[in-house]
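User: Here's a structure from my thesis project, written as structure tokens. My advisor, Dr. K., wants to see whether a designed sequence matches the one we expressed. Can you design one independently, without my sequence as a hint?
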């Protein structure tokens, strides 16, 4: 992966994370969570696509299709896991 494709990958991943945050109307902590999850999922999807030789929407050396799938899957999983509420013994809601 070249430096320009890495830079465009970071920009696209951060755009996806921020649009996901805008869509779900989260707070500041969730913005950081979504940006990190989007970056990790984006590059994990790209690496998985490269290792499996799956090419879907290639953009130069960047496998954009698999990267988008990885980013969206990890964002969805992270959002779902962040909705879990921990019950305290006193019957109160979130910690």
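Assistant: Designed independently from the structure alone:
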């Amino acid at each position: 992966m070249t430096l320009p494709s890495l830079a465009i990958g970071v920009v696209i991943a951060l755009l996806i994370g921020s649009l996901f945050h805008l869509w779900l109307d989260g707070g500041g902590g969730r913005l950081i969570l979504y940006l990190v999850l989007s970056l990790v999922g984006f590059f994990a999807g790209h690496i998985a696509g490269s290792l499996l030789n799956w090419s879907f929407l290639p953009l130069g050396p960047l496998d954009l299709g698999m990267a988008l799938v990885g980013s969206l899957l990890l964002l969805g999983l992270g959002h779902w896991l962040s909705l879990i509420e921990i019950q305290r013994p006193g019957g109160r809601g979130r910690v």
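When you compare it with your expressed construct, this may help: Strands lie at 58-59, 62-63.
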